[in-house]
Amino acid sequence: MREERFTITENAPLRPDVFRLRLAGNCEAVTAPGQFVSLSVPGLFLRRPFSVCDREGDMLTLVYQVKGRGTGALSRMQSGTLDVLTGLGNGFDLSRAGDAPVLCAGGLGFTPLYFLAKALPKKPRVVLGFATAAEVLYADEFRALGCDVKLCTADGSAGEKGLVPDFLGNASYFYACGSEGMLRALEREAACEGEFSLEARMGCGFGACMGCTRETVSGPKRVCRDGPVFRKGEILW
Fold it and tell me: Does residue 103 register a pLDDT over 90?
């Protein structure tokens, strides 16, 4: 974990409630897809955690949804600097991908999976699930990496009608991020092993406050310090 000052180079809407934030600064502590950073938004006490969507050299890319005061204030920042804790959490295990990995993203769950897709030596199949066509994001970005993208929506307005677990197919291993309902379904239905990236409310982001603790087969674990990536079968849902 490192505390750094980053400069805002872009903070643009991808849709009315979702923004892409690009930050320039020291990214050395971000070493694995699946890690996250925690931003200090000026005027607010608690930091806000965000998955790393991409890292290239000294540039971080985050994609976030405006949901409350913190993300609302962040969305209005078009310039300036931010205090950032970098290199938080444990990332995905790339060594377990096998020959036919599948990335399973529900909604903005694509965020850490984009960084993972870039890092995998063999470009994976990617299943992107959204509620409606109006919510679809990053399908073209995954295709540009060379990924085979399956797009699905709950109402059938884009891609195929259905939910992400419906399209897992013959996967050797899966990596997933999305709603807890989607992760539970993958836990039940997937024939292969895999990993989940969990979302949680966090007070500190580095394990001191215990506020993001989840029960696991090996006892209580903190999403921020012991995760956010956990293996299938590890979480007691």
Answer: yes
